[in-house]
Amino acid sequence: METKVLCCPECGSKKLYKAGFRYTGQGPIQRLLCRNCGYRFSESNHKPLNKPSSIGSNCQVCASSLPGRVINLAKVEPLREGLAGATKEDKGSFVGFLWQMKKQGYSEPTIKTYGYSLQILVKRKADLSNLDSVKEVLAKSNWSDAHKNVVIAAYTLYLSMQGKTWKPPICRLTRKLPFIPTQEELDALIAGCGKKTSAFLQTLKETALRSSEACSLQWQDLDLLRKMIVFNKPLKHGNPRIFKISDKLISMLSTLPKKNKYVFGTNNKTTRQTVFYKARKRLTAKLGNPRLMRVGFHTFRHWKATLLYHQTHDIILVKEFLGHRSLNTTLLYIQLEKAIFQNLSDEFIVKGVQDPKEIKALLEVGFDFVCDKDGIMFFRKRK
Predict the structure, then answer these.
(1) Has residue 13 been placed in a domain?
(2) In the chain, N or C terminus with fewer CB closer than 10 Å?
(3) In a domain, 257, yes or no
(4) Strand, coil or helix: 123
């Protein structure tokens, strides 16, 4: 008698985790989690679980108009055509809203976030056709101001696509100063994680890429001969960038398996975060440093930007390095740099040389040219 081998209904992978049981009137049903794509489903008939955690990496959302179904945005049109009486111009439906966003060129992460935001409103008993009902749910929620702003923006766009407007509730968003760890703390986290996670964190540390941007890196983006990463897929309509990377990072990336076109595999961001959070919790207990629990993927971006401004005091350079569209976004790091390094004096190592070989050697180890006086070229480097 042949044994039935279970596989993920989303990606076909046979690498599965057991994720507890789902209790129904017919008894407990084993829940499974795909190690490859993070998709969650039940063992019985491979039914997907209608929970936010089952949203996969290829931008799936649960549509309130289709109970128990998980919708892939790439298949929105044929699914909608299969609905009784549905048309492509049906902008009032939940699926129609997602389709309109896709047609208007919104990015996949934005579509996923807005769809999830509306899904949360519906789960909290909000009637999307009733403005007072939505305002009541927003008033009773204990969401942060940042999360509430996203939900308000999603619902505003939802109404706009139906030709409607509303007066949204007042929600003043105050930008908080991020936590900036020390370099030693980041290095401890990198050294304590697994091979793939360590390479991922080292990439964030050297390039200040957003975690989603780093997940999209492909092998063709690496120029190991010139020690560069050419990044042409920025998020938030940012600018493409080129990064010089260290020999350490090159060595770490070279050891990763090349199973597909992506450097860090096809695991979605949620799965990667779960692996990192477990390692972070273990290292916090091992090293006795509770500050490590405050470090997330985006912390590496804040740390790199703050350090870069301290080293150069060139805010335009920091803006271009991060790929920001607006300088106002980058000005935050001036305040962070002053707060963190205010007790540190700007001390330099100064060298004066004439020999071209010595000049080359100083430049190779990070010295910057200052001036030329009486035939002697002066260089300096921060201590």
Answers:
(1) yes
(2) N
(3) yes
(4) helix
77/136 same-domain check: yes
Which regions of the chain does DSSP assign to beta strands (E)? 16-24, 27-34, 40-42, 60-62, 70-72, 222-223, 228-231, 241-244, 348-353, 368-373, 376-382
Q: Could you give the 3-state DSSP secondary structure of residue 353? A: strand
Please give the average pLDDT of every successive group of 10 residues along the chain, which has 383 residues: 66 77 73 74 58 40 40 41 37 72 85 89 89 92 89 92 90 84 95 94 95 92 92 83 93 91 84 92 95 96 93 90 89 88 67 85 82 82 70
What CA–CA distances, in Å, run from 328 to 300, 315, 319, 325?
A: 20, 10, 9, 9
* Residue 90 belongs to domain spanning: 61-174
279 and 378, same domain (yes or no)? no
Q: What pTM was computed for the model?
A: 0.64
Distances (CA, A) of 209 to 48, 260, 292, 324: 32, 21, 20, 11
Q: What pLDDT, on the 0 to 100 scale, is given for residue 343? A: 57
Classified as helix, coil or strand, 247 is: helix
Quote the tokens at residue 356: 């071209």
How many domains, in total, are found in the chain? Answer: 4
